[in-house]
UniProtKB/TrEMBL annotation:
Highest taxon above the source species: Bacteria
Residues spanning the signal sequence: none
Domain Cupin type-1: 67-149
One Pfam family in the UniProt entry: Cupin_1
Gene3D superfamilies the record matches: Jelly Rolls
Coiled-coil stretches noted in the UniProt entry, renumbered to this chain: none
The protein's name in its UniProt record: Cupin type-1 domain-containing protein
Length: 173
């Protein structure tokens, strides 16, 4: 039995470089309600899905409440419990409510910051193979460095939600 709802198609948004947060020319993707969570083990449902699609280094936590991005790796965030309002794309980006069953895929450089979360909010994060995650704060110096590293970040071998034939493969060509 698949844990991914049929014909899951993500919302795709391209955030502009704002001078402090580089963002990416690749679209930020959000699958809304795409994952059918096991009510007894929602975290494991998401972890297993990501790992089955080749995304690893999983962790369980929330989203930091300060603006940051990752200039050396793409990141996926799967919501296992609760909900949160997260600003994606930096201070000039967009606030999006993500809730249990949603998955957000952030191309390298995409700014993100938790604005408000429910008490039970739990997100699973993961990364494609081969890259090291580093937290980067939005400063002019970091922005200049990120503009050099982001274009070198390899595209993932599969969509973390829908696999090798998933929307990410088509939308990130």
């Amino acid at each position: 039995m698949s844990v991914v709802r049929d014909r899951a198609e993500p919302l795709a948004i391209v955030f502009e470089d704002d001078g402090l947060v580089p963002n990416n020319i690749l679209p930020f993707l959000v699958y809304q309600g795409a994952v059918k969570l096991d009510p007894k083990r929602p975290e494991a449902t998401i972890e297993n899905l990501f790992e089955a699609n080749g995304w690893g280094g999983t962790w369980r936590n929330g989203v930091y409440d300060y603006l940051h991005y990752h200039a050396t790796v793409h990141e996926v965030l799967g919501v296992a419990r609760g909900s949160a309002r997260v600003r994606f794309g930096g201070n000039h980006g967009q606030e999006i409510l993500i809730k249990a069953g949603d998955v957000a895929i952030l191309p390298a450089g995409t700014g993100h910051q938790c604005i408000k979360a429910s008490d039970d909010f739990c997100v699973i994060g993961a990364y494609p193979p081969g890259a090291k995650m580093e937290i980067t704060r939005a400063t002019a110096e970091n922005h200049a460095k990120a503009l050099k590293t982001i274009p070198r970040v390899a595209k993932p071998p599969a969509d973390p939600v829908t696999g090798r034939d998933g929307a990410l493969m088509r939308l990130w060509r």
